[in-house]
Amino acid sequence: MDIKKVFGEKVKRIRKKKNLTQEQLAELIDISPRNLSKIEVGECFVKAETLEKILKALDISTEDLFATDHIKEPEELINQIYNILDKVKNDNKKLEKIYKMAKFLANED
Question: What is the pLDDT of residues 79-107, one digit of tens each?
Fold first, then answer.
């Protein structure tokens, strides 16, 4: 696991959840948008001062930013999805909801 990449993806995900553009967050943490882009794609890591600014700007804790227990390999995720589907295969309502959510998420990107 590349810590810079995981960290950058997390910053990007939280930034988007907070409806901030790269330019807006970069301004809040006093770095260039280009440097923020490099952080988000895992090309570079942040200095301690910048980390503190990111935490403040995104209104999150260090623990929230560095927690990686939710990260799973694609193969593991697929297996878990199949297990869930197997458990609800006879429940049309749940299958319909899962289908709609999957369809929505697949079209979102």
Answer: 989 999 999 999 999 999 999 999 998 88
Check pLDDT > 80 for residue 73. no
Please check whether residue 36 is in contact with residue 25, taking contact to mean a CB–CB distance below 8 angstroms: yes
User: DSSP labels for 19-84?
Assistant: T--HHHHHHHHTS-HHHHHHHHTTSS---HHHHHHHHHHHT--HHHHH--TT---HHHHHHHHHHH
Cα-based distances in Å from 59 to 1, 36, 38, 92: 26, 17, 21, 40
Q: Greatest CA separation found in the chain?
A: 54
CATH topology of domain 3-66: 434 Repressor (Amino-terminal Domain) (1.10.260)
This prediction has a pTM of 0.62
Average pLDDT over residues 15-26: 96
Domain-wise residue ranges, the chain: 3-66, 74-108
The CB density around residue 53, as the number of other CB atoms within 10 Å, is: 17
